[in-house]
Amino acid sequence: MQSSSTNGPSRGVLDYFKWAFIVTAAGLALGAVLGWQMTQTLGGTLTIFFICAVLAVLEISLSFDNAIVNANKLKDMTPVWQRRFLTWGILIAVFGMRIVFPLLIVVIAAKIGPWEAMVLAAAEPARYAEIMHDAHLPIAAFGGTFLMMVGLSFFFDQSKDVHWVRWLEATMQRYATIRGIEVAIVLVTVLIFSRLLEPGESQIFFRSAIWGLLTFLLVEVLGGLLDSTQEMMEAGAKGGLGAFLYLEVLDASFSFDGVIGAFALTQNLFVIAIGLGIGAMYVRSMTIMLVEKGTLTAYRYLEHGAFYAIIALSVIMFLQSLIEIPEVITGLGGAGLIGLSLWSSIRWNRVNADMAAEG
């Protein structure tokens, strides 16, 4: 599919982040107003302002790989479905995952209604944060399993012909002919971690992980059915409703870690929504830029770094069921892998350009 950038004049990098900058300004201003209403002091206002900014940076650092994987899927989607994901999809990501999702957890865990959960978040933030913390184990198991399946499915692919860590990726490609090998690896990993937990926690972890695995498989099956039907109806259009649903569930899995980790900085749901919402807008801007500029094609190992980061994140989410791991480690780890893959891509481009010049 041709990049949409060919349909109009080339855009500068800053042009892609225009709306992200606008949302940042509006969000930080709203955070300052909220801080003043909550504390009635300049110091309190600046504290809330700073927390909003830190949460935005946290979300961006955790979401580099999210943007790259989104772009990888979007480049094969029709322009219509690209626009739908980048408009409706981002609304679901910002409002659904950053506001509705934390409320839904409390609704289920505390067995209360949505309105009561909202009141609890506003009136008793400490109790709200406690419920969210208690829900971390099943969330980590569900999200970690889903993301591990996403990462392994990229490497266990018979048609994959570009390898970054050659010895490892060539081996995984060779064994991709074994049906269900990714599922087997994930299940063994889940069993190992569940054995390390207390009996009660082990059951919760295992059950949630199985739901994460089933969700991935169901989204894959449903996506194939929807897209095959759409191909017949729309003369082969690629990446329709099935791909849209896949990206939404993927974004949700990426968001689990950031939403839960945000409660380490503040117990106020509305401050969290502002900070993470700002970060989500940068993810959207990065996704658009990657698709339109063809960055994934220009830097051949960038996708590899993102999928290695996804697998690393899934393992970290599993480890969080056993030990505390600061969010900064999660963010820096993923960013480091992507940065290394970018450096390798630039180096490969330079070497091949020199060889072409000599030839």
Automatic annotation (TrEMBL):
Positions of transmembrane segments: 16-36, 42-64, 85-110, 135-156, 176-197, 209-227, 262-284, 305-323, 329-346
This protein's name: Integral membrane protein, YkoY family
Keyword vocabulary terms for this entry: Membrane, Transmembrane, Transmembrane helix
Name of a matching Pfam family: DUF475
Keyword Transmembrane helix: yes
Keyword Transmembrane helix recorded: yes
Lineage: Bacteria, Pseudomonadati, Pseudomonadota, Alphaproteobacteria, Rhodobacterales
InterPro entries given in the database record: DUF475 (IPR007427)
